[in-house]
């Protein structure tokens, strides 16, 4: 793993990367599975022109592997809130991809130090079309990862080969995740505790769903983005995600598509991803 900065919270020590003017508005980046904070490497220099950018390894993963959680996005968000409080970060923009987007969704419903939030290419547990997503046989790994112990037994020592199954089909052939970057991600989950932490995030989906269904309205402005090419691979329209988030009580919602991207938006098209976010932020 690459070196980074550290912040200690009651649960342990989180590692993050920071770039940009410390006095600029804060932008906090949360990665998904099976990635680490390194997934933002191409977007950070672009965003750092106008923001103080902080990209975290999620609790339990990569250089934050010493922090244990129950996998629920509520607990992960609470730990990140403690970290941001310790760093004096307030009035921040929170951006989460994949499972990081699920964490961001919980965060804005429980903490008031976020001015705006962006969710990149995920479905929120308990929010329509969640039930349809669970029924999609192409997403078999949701159930597999939730199985106790079995994923660790089969994946340990084969992280790179297994993760490749999720990288290669979910990027355009002309914009793959480079092999050396895939190895970086495999290394981030190579420790037994880190691999379990990643799978625990899936094991917590049922609890996440129940929790999210209980949430009330949220006025924090929210941007929901998906990859243009990824939407062409599914029968679920962007409007369905918009309607689901609206029905769940997100009162200030915008949606959009990032061109030339499938799922890993910040790596496949970092400039297009930032352009959509910057428009939302009016910068």
Automatic annotation (TrEMBL):
<dbReference type="Pfam" id="PF00561">
    <property type="entry name" value="Abhydrolase_1"/>
</dbReference>
<feature type="domain" description="AB hydrolase-1">
    <location>
        <begin position="25"/>
        <end position="269"/>
    </location>
</feature>
<dbReference type="InterPro" id="IPR000073">
    <property type="entry name" value="AB_hydrolase_1"/>
</dbReference>
<dbReference type="InterPro" id="IPR050266">
    <property type="entry name" value="AB_hydrolase_sf"/>
</dbReference>
<keyword id="KW-0378">Hydrolase</keyword>
<protein>
    <submittedName>
        <fullName>Alpha/beta hydrolase</fullName>
    </submittedName>
</protein>
<dbReference type="InterPro" id="IPR029058">
    <property type="entry name" value="AB_hydrolase_fold"/>
</dbReference>
<dbReference type="GO" id="GO:0016787">
    <property type="term" value="F:hydrolase activity"/>
</dbReference>
């Amino acid at each position: 793993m690459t070196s980074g900065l550290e912040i200690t919270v009651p649960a342990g020590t989180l590692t993050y990367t920071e770039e940009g003017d410390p006095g600029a508005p804060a932008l906090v980046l949360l990665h998904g599975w099976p990635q680490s904070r390194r997934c933002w490497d191409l977007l950070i220099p672009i965003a750092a022109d106008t923001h103080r950018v902080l990209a975290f390894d999620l609790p339990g993963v990569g250089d934050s592997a010493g922090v244990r959680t129950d996998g629920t996005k509520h607990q992960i968000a609470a730990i990140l809130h403690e970290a941001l409080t310790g760093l004096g970060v307030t009035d921040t923009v929170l951006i989460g991809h994949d499972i990081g987007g699920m964490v961001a969704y919980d965060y804005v419903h429980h903490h008031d130090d976020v001015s705006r939030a962006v969710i990149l290419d995920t479905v929120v547990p308990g929010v329509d079309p969640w039930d349809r997503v669970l029924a999609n046989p192409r997403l078999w790994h949701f159930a597999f990862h939730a199985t106790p112990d079995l994923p660790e037994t089969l994946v340990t020592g084969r992280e790179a080969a297994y993760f490749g199954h999720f990288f290669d089909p979910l990027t355009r052939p002309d914009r793959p995740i480079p092999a050396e970057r895939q190895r970086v991600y495999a290394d981030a989950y190579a420790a037994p505790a880190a691999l379990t932490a990643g799978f625990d995030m899936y094991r917590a989906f049922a609890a996440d769903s129940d929790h999210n269904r209980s949430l009330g309205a949220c006025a924090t402005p929210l941007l929901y983005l998906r990859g243009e090419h990824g939407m062409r691979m599914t029968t679920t329209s962007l409007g369905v995600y918009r309607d689901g988030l609206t029905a769940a009580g997100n009162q200030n919602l915008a949606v959009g598509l990032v061109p030339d991207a499938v799922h890993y938006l910040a790596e496949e098209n970092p400039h297009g991803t930032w352009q959509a976010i910057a428009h939302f932020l009016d910068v």
